[in-house]
């Protein structure tokens, strides 16, 4: 059930509150926009994230001001937006985007060592499924330098727009093409690190990602 | 010059303050994340936007709570993030994203009729360059239903990460592929509105966009 704060008020028909939809959007995105307030000023910063069960994790340097502020339990808002297409109407006014977005309200808490390791695995797997088993695991120094913050998926909602433009009936006869230009995130050919030792090829996991049909597989 | 609030503190070498870089990022993105505070709670909402000179415009329904709040001159933060690639290191810890982001701090003001029309043209042209001249212009009813808000580009900064992963020297000999998977926004084949009258083809402007090499041309 939506809370009073997460109920979608503009275009309420686009508001969705079931966890299945919310989770699918969260699990497809790569970057979240995290909002918090400091001295009355809102800040919105892009950040990697990963969902594990009922928690969305973000992480940052132990030295980061945002991480310190957020660990203190201040109010936060985490938003993930997937852009699916440009909606071209016959009238300027009815132009729009097709998108799927999720808004999570709550507070962040700094998680303990075991949850930190789980979250770091989830971050790595979000980037390339299968990557965690290929790479060197975090050592103690790295774990100490990273703070992982968790936000519970308690107060959250999704908003989705899909389909064709909605023009006024009077505009339907205008000689203007109308429809959608679909957009997707496409991966290019992997670029090796200039310091890569000779003879090391991208793993199957990396190849699967980069030759995928667009939206990340996985 | 960055203000105390926009100076990039984490990874300061990634902070960029020249307007040329900031404008280029703003002019490439399609969706901004706009943050504001209501009752102590930050909200972050995705929104279309357009830059014209020294102002970033957003718009919304005259009936929208967010638009009403923001018109009142409360503090706001507008963030645009372009995701350029996934950075795969030999260690889990050094995985990252390549990205370019801009943060604009300030307040929104509701703009007058002339600036509103200019902004609506800019929104339409942001979606597809050349589109404004193809479509029906906004009528008085539509102009009344839309509020355009402007944020001055006074307090703003960019943050950019590019290039290969940065691994610890001790990890360079690990037999793990490292590098970048480039990402871009790709447009698919235009999907006509089911209500489109027969024989109307996508304009050159629409075709140019959707057959472009990835990132929107223009």
Overview of this structure, please?
2 copies of one chain form a homodimer. The first copy, chain A, is α+β, with helices and mostly antiparallel strands and 218 residues long. Helices cover 21% and strands 37% of the residues of chain A. The first copy, chain A, folds into 2 domains: 12-85 and 96-163, Pnp Oxidase, Chain A (Roll); 184-218, no CATH class. Chain A has 5 helices and 12 strands. In chain A, the strands form 2 sheets. In chain A, strands 1, 2, 3, 6, 7, 10 and 11 form a 7-stranded antiparallel beta sheet that branches. Chain A has a 4-stranded antiparallel beta sheet with strand order 4-5-9-8, sandwiched between helices. Mean pLDDT of chain A is 91; it is low at 214-218. At the A-B interface, strand 2, strand 3, strand 6, strand 7 and helix 3 of A face strand 2, strand 3, strand 6, strand 7 and helix 3 of B.
């Amino acid at each position: 059930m939506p809370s009073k704060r997460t109920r979608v008020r503009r275009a309420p028909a686009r508001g969705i509150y079931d966890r299945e939809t919310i989770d699918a959007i969260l699990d497809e995105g790569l970057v979240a926009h995290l909002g918090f307030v400091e001295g009355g000023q809102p800040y919105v910063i892009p950040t990697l994230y990963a969902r594990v069960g009922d928690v969305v994790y973000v992480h940052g340097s132990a030295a980061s001001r945002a991480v310190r502020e957020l660990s203190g339990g201040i109010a936060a808002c985490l938003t993930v937006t997937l852009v699916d297409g440009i909606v071209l109407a016959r009238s300027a006014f009815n132009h729009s985007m097709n998108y799927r977005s999720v808004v999570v309200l709550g507070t962040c808490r700094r998680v303990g060592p075991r949850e930190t390791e789980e979250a770091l695995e989830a971050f790595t797997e979000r980037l390339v499924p299968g990557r965690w088993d290929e790479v060197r695991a975090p050592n103690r120094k790295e774990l100490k330098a990273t703070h992982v913050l968790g936000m519970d998926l308690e107060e959250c909602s999704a908003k989705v727009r899909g389909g064709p433009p909605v023009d006024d009936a009077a505009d339907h006869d205008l000689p203007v093409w109308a429809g959608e230009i679909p957009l997707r995130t496409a991966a290019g050919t992997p670029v090796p690190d200039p310091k890569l030792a000779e003879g090391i090829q991208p793993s199957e996991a990396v190849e699967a990602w980069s030759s995928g049909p667009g939206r990340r597989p996985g």
